Amino acid sequence: xxxxxxxxxxxxxxxxxxxxxxxxxxxxxxxxxxxxxxxxxxxxxxxxxxxxxxxxxxxxxxxxxxxxxxxxxxxxxxxxxxxxxxxxxxxxxxxxxxxxxxxxxxxxxxxxxxxxxxxxxxxxxxxxxxxxxxxxxxxxxxxxxxxxxxxxxxxxxxxxxxxxxxxxxxxxxxxxxxxxxxxxxxxxxxxxxxxxxxxxxxxxxxxxxxxxxxxxxxxxxxxxxxxxxxxxxxxxxxxxxxxxxxxxxxxxxxxxxxxxxxxxxxxxxxxxxxxxxxxxxxxxxxxxxxxxxxxxxxxxxxxxxxxxxxxxxxxxxxxxxxxxxxxxxxxxxxxxxxxxxxxxxxxxxxxxxxxxxxxxxxxxxxxxxxxxxxxxxxxxxxxxxxxxxx
Length: 390
What we know:
Blueprint: E1 18-24, E2 32-37, H1 38-52, E3 60-63, H2 70-82, E4 86-88, H3 101-109, E5 113-116, H4 118-125, E6 142-145, H5 152-162, E7 169-171, E8 187-190, E9 196-197, E10 201-207, E11 217-218, H6 222-229, E12 237-245, E13 251-256, E14 260-263, E15 266-269, H7 270-278, E16 283-293, E17 297-306, H8 314-327, E18 336-339, H9 353-360, H10 376-383
């Protein structure tokens, strides 16, 4: 360090040189290497940070996101640094060493912009309002939420209790939820035939033109990039979400159009979780769906068919949870694993996931199941639901 130069010359790069590759779940189970480039990504993260969070010179900004997640990349690292922002850096969980940890930090550093996920909000709601009343949160000016749709109860608590009814909530959409589009983003709602719908409508959320920070490719597989985002409706970028537009022009996300799971704001594909379960020597087949969770938004409910001669035990259940956790990460740990003698499949062999979701949620109104090869399996699966998933 003694001999180090005081100045470090920057490396000159082309605007379209790769900046980073971030791997995210793919609907086929194989992770996608999302490639972002230097100029477009930096421009947009700098611009969105400045205007979405209304950042000014004397503000103190805090995002609780994981820095390895795209939100952490964008709104802990690149966006704040590009604006010369004063940021709080935090490592840990919201409830350790005590449940007032977040509010203590806001008071200590006089945080003005606070950005977190609905999962954290729902978690902290459980501990009541008395905890918050111990701390001075009057420095707050802007509240942000990111990663998954926020339910009305959590939004109102965040607004009324944390923001004291005076802080606007920025409900940001990085393909999870949204309100109005940002500069340069032109959304549209299409029907199944690719026809653009006007006024109040429900259909596929697409974008009509590129914006500076749009991902440039899936690393090493540009064909997959084209197939995933552009092939279904040529001339549009397909977000992968269904949406509805209300009479006021607000866009509401209705859910993923593929078999994706949203757990604590992290998208997981059913295929990757099922693959992890199926690697266990006792498992012949697995199917994974989501069910509502009061804290995480959604949690994983897994159906496993064991190989002949294998008996389902608590030991196997814990081994399966551990295996998924080790293969994918703690965020993917299943909450429920049900022993299944079979799965509801069509005559062509396709798993009818709609039925599995209804079983996981104990919803008996199944609608039309005439295409199932063996409809009797449905009643069996209902009778063997996990007891804790009442």
